[in-house]
Design a protein that fits this description.
Blueprint: E1 16-36, E2 39-53, E3 56-62, H1 75-93, E4 95-96, H2 98-105, H3 112-130, H4 134-138, E5 144-146, E6 148-151, H5 157-170, E7 174-178, H6 185-195, E8 200-204, H7 214-218, E9 228-229, H8 237-246, E10 251-253, H9 260-268, E11 274-277, H10 279-282, H11 285-297, E12 302-304, H12 311-320, E13 353-355, H13 368-374, E14 375-383
Parallel strand pairs: 6-7, 7-8, 8-9, 9-10, 10-11, 11-12
Antiparallel strand pairs: 1-2, 1-4, 1-14, 2-3, 5-13
Bound molecules: N-succinyl phenylglycine (NPG).
N-succinyl phenylglycine binds near residues 308 and 333.
Length: about 375
């Protein structure tokens, strides 16, 4: 399968000298529990990668969850594969840029979230050294991005409506509801009548349905949704194509899209007409830009997904979401949607938008005192042997 070259090649930057890789693990309490079809989360178990280079440093955030319930990757496993395989391989190359990371780590199958965190840290170091922001590097075309918010499964419809109303009042441009069998038509109907017919509303099933549910899911057509996201398991492109043929609501893939090649295939098979892009899920921001490019070349709108990132990951997501093909509001919420205090400067919503950072690299600074305070495990230092 051939995938066209990206529309605007990423800039050439000087490489960095990689001296050390550090793994930082912090536990951040969520302002409210977050429930999806695969479980309820009370804290964000965050793994950050710091690379130290000849003349600076860079940070990357890993999006894996504590348990392998969204994808096969999970935090402890990511730390292990980074320490045992990925960091030593990169340290062995020593002089490199973000573009070299994919090839250097290609001997390890999968583990995209682990690779993405390391590649992002290298990219951050490289762009900081070059004085280039992530937005400039990726090809951002706007200074701020429109934001949506993802709303977890609630314990009652009343509670859900209260939460949705608070996000509407905070200015979010689009609401995404988590659904699962037994929590779908009724909450969606209630939220649609709360918000009115013109509000942007979409649903996310996180693989909770099967092909036998197509008739049931068709009933969502009554609610004028922007899209239904990932109803079936990630490998099952065929059932998503069958659903897309059966309903009017656009089908959007998330978990299934692991690379630009897979995106091209799923689009060609009419399994998805909108794509959620998460850099961690596709192996890094460079691949995320490629996914954007192949979708744009096919007139398929994309939007930026989220994985409850701290400011480190949020900064990079907001820069990505400023690319031209991101025509729908993303899960790029303000820091306060998840955290009372962020690990970096806070991302604050203004009229439903977040500003794309303009300083070099990711444009944000990790607050080392908070890193200390919230640390859940000792730092792992991975250097040259
Ligand atoms: O706003 O950062 C965010 C989270 C958005 O709903 C969100 N993420 O499937 O897209 C998802 C979902 C998720 C949540 C995935 C928890 C994994 C764990």
């Amino acid at each position: 399968m051939t995938v066209p070259e990206q529309s605007s090649p990423l800039p050439e930057l000087d490489p960095v000298e990689l001296e050390e890789v550090e793994l930082h693990r912090v536990s951040m309490p969520l302002v409210r529990p977050f429930e999806t079809s695969f479980g309820r989360q009370y804290v964000r178990d965050v793994l950050l990668v710091r690379v130290r280079t000849g003349d600076g440093e860079g940070w990357g955030e890993c999006v894996a969850m504590t348990d392998p319930v969204y994808s096969s990757e999970y935090v402890e496993g990511v730390a292990e594969v980074l320490a045992r395989y990925l960091a030593p391989a990169l340290l062995g190359v020593r002089t490199l840029g973000a573009r070299d990371v994919g090839a250097a780590l290609g001997f390890v199958i999968g583990h995209r979230m682990a690779k993405a965190a390391l590649e992002t840290a290298v990219l951050d170091a490289q762009t900081r050294a070059a004085g280039v922001s992530f937005g400039e590097y990726f090809g951002a075309v706007r200074p701020e991005v429109e934001c949506g918010v993802s709303v977890g499964i609630a314990s009652s419809i009343d509670e859900l409506l209260e939460e949705v109303a608070s996000y509407r009042d905070a200015g979010y441009r689009r609401i995404k509801l988590k659904i699962k069998p037994g929590w779908d038509l009724e909450p969606v109907a209630a939220v649609r009548s709360l918000l009115g017919p013109d509000a942007l509303l979409q649903v996310d099933a996180n693989t909770a349905y099967t092909v036998d549910d197509i008739d049931h899911l068709r009933r969502l057509d009554d609610f004028g949704l922007l899209l239904i996201e990932q109803p079936f398991v990630e490998e099952d492109i065929a059932s998503h194509a069958a659903l897309a043929a059966a309903i009017d609501t656009p089908v959007c893939l998330d978990e299934s899209i692991t690379s630009a090649e897979v995106a091209v295939d799923a689009i060609a098979r009419d399994a998805t007409s909108i794509v959620n892009i998460k850099a961690g899920r596709v192996g890094g921001y460079l691949e995320a830009v490629r996914v954007h490019d192949v979708c744009r070349a096919r007139d398929v709108p994309v939007w930026c997904g989220g994985m409850l990132e701290t400011g480190v990951g949020r900064a990079a997501n907001v820069a990505l979401a400023a690319l031209p093909g991101f025509t729908l509001p993303g899960d790029t919420s303000g820091s306060d949607r998840y955290f009372a205090e962020d690990l970096t400067e806070s991302f604050v919503l203004v009229e439903g938008r977040l500003a794309v950072p303009t300083a070099a690299g990711s444009g944000v600074t990790v607050r080392e005192e908070l890193l200390q305070e919230w640390r859940s495990q000792p730092v792992r230092y991975l250097g040259h042997v």
